């Protein structure tokens, strides 16, 4: 009897471990990222001139949000690299980085590892992300004439393999062709992926304060 109970306990422990790993590595990234309590709502057409005054006036800007510790960001980087190589003559790319340990050396590591030749900005407190209404990675923000043209996902899932749902690239093509922002389904605009570390810290602080 004891052997049976021990076997059952070990089996349940193993299944629990497998379930936890599946949640951590896969399933939770298929769900929308939790929305922060203090999220600033930023919509298509909103001006960002006061937020990012150094942006060029004529050339559009593609802002890529990257979390060094996010598996979705690491998988998405190949898609982003491809877009930089293809469109860098037509638009200015900027990568905005965060990491869980807020290590400033990771900017240099990012530059060396991916060698994209673009501006890379550290955003440890999430001020840039907050100003643009970003709380998850990977996310893309397209800016034209200091206004939001597109803000949302690269694709409908972390695996950027479906051409028909490459939302960021479709929006970029439309912007470069002088077209109005395309209409996208909610799946393009609902954030999926990893919550930004700055949002996690802010939410934890808010939860602690609410106790007292």
UniProtKB/TrEMBL annotation:
Domain of life: Bacteria
Species the sequence originates in: Fulvivirga sedimenti
One GO molecular-function entry: oxidoreductase activity
Protein name: Redoxin domain-containing protein
Coiled-coil regions listed: none
InterPro entries: DUF6436, Thioredoxin-like_sf, Thioredoxin_ResA/DsbE_sf
DUF6436 domain: residues covered: 56-185
